[in-house]
Specification:
With about 280 residues, the chain is α/β, with parallel strands linked by helices. The longest helix has 11 residues, at about 35-45. The two termini are about 20 Å apart. About 20% of the residues lie in helices and about 20% in strands. The strands form three sheets. Strands 4-3-2-1-5-10-11-12-13-14 form a ten-stranded mixed β-sheet, with helices on both faces. Strands 6-7 form a two-stranded antiparallel ribbon. The protein has a two-stranded antiparallel ribbon with strand order 8-9. The chain has a single domain (about 10-275), classed as Glutaconate Coenzyme A-transferase (3-Layer(aba) Sandwich).
Length: about 280
């Protein structure tokens, strides 16, 4: 497994007018990288949420940071059947033994999906994506034609069920014109399909995507159209960069904000405890 309401955790301070030039190199002049900013902004989005269904990858380091900062009581669910996980290190997979130690419960995947996810008890599904369109539809299956793909990706795992049944979905990914596309090559996990009311027609219980966090900014969704819009831009990023990394005519919030920079403690946790080898934030 690899706009809506914006959580207070990522409330940004001040308008984004006059943001400075993009950072140079991995960390630029600010002392932190855009990958670190991505993880920090993703973690902050989880403040105030209790139950989070998460996969391995960038969402995993973000929830680990949230558990150590803005959401100490958050209960993490992993597809392998672990509920209330509190891993001491980043797991290598959904079957990593560190997920079980100290967890509230371990059960079968059938019980986890039926009683918790389909039962409407998951506050947030935290997903990644290889491709994303303006309506938050996710592709993690193939790049190119399905029968003759350029790249074959891991597929859905539990992501499709999470996207349908979680009360809301957060998406964490790096942004480029190849990942933010006008039309995804395969719809693995549904967002708002083609408009704000499309999910209700399907009878799905979850609201779908409400927050997207990238290394360039944070996005919400227009409740009238179900279309993504830029709500906050990260420090050092320009609007020209954001537009160049987006494959459609991106909507910009009228009250565009600037994301607060990472704190010293957030950076220490990432660099010393969560990812000292730089596997995620290099």
């Amino acid at each position: 497994m690899n706009g809506g309401t914006v959580p207070r955790a990522v409330d940004a301070t001040g308008p984004a007018a006059g943001v400075g030039p993009g950072s140079a190199g991995a960390t630029g002049d600010r002392g932190w990288s855009r990958s670190e900013m991505l993880v920090v902004a993703g973690a902050r989005a989880l403040a105030g949420h209790r139950v989070c269904f998460v996969g391995i990858g960038l969402p995993n380091i973000a929830v680990a940071l949230a558990q150590r900062t803005v959401a100490p009581q958050i209960e993490l669910i992993y597809e392998s059947g672990v509920y209330g996980s509190r891993p001491e290190r980043l797991p290598l997979s959904i079957g990593d033994p560190c997920l079980v130690t100290g967890a509230i419960s371990v059960m079968s995947m059938v019980e986890l999906f039926q009683y918790f996810l389909q039962g409407g008890l998951v506050d947030v599904g935290f997903l990644g994506a290889a491709q994303l369109d303006r309506h938050g539809n996710i592709n993690t299956t193939v790049i190119g034609d399905y029968s003759r793909p350029k790249v074959r990706l891991p597929g859905s795992g539990g992501a499709c069920e999470i996207a349908i049944n979680a009360r809301e979905v957060f998406i964490l990914m790096r942004q480029s014109s190849r990942s933010f596309v006008e039309r995804i090559d395969f719809r693995t996990s549904p967002g708002s399909l083609g408009g704000a009311s499309a999910r209700a027609v399907q009878g799905w219980q979850g609201r779908g995507p409400t927050v997207v966090v990238t290394d360039l900014g944070r996005y919400d969704f227009d409740p009238r159209t179900g279309e993504m819009r830029l709500a906050a831009i990260h420090p050092g990023v320009t609007l020209d960069e954001v537009h160049a990394a987006t494959g459609w005519d991106l909507r910009i919030a009228d009250d565009l904000l600037t994301t607060p920079e990472p704190t010293d403690e957030e950076l220490r946790l990432i660099r010393e405890e969560l990812d000292p080898q730089g596997a995620y934030v290099r």
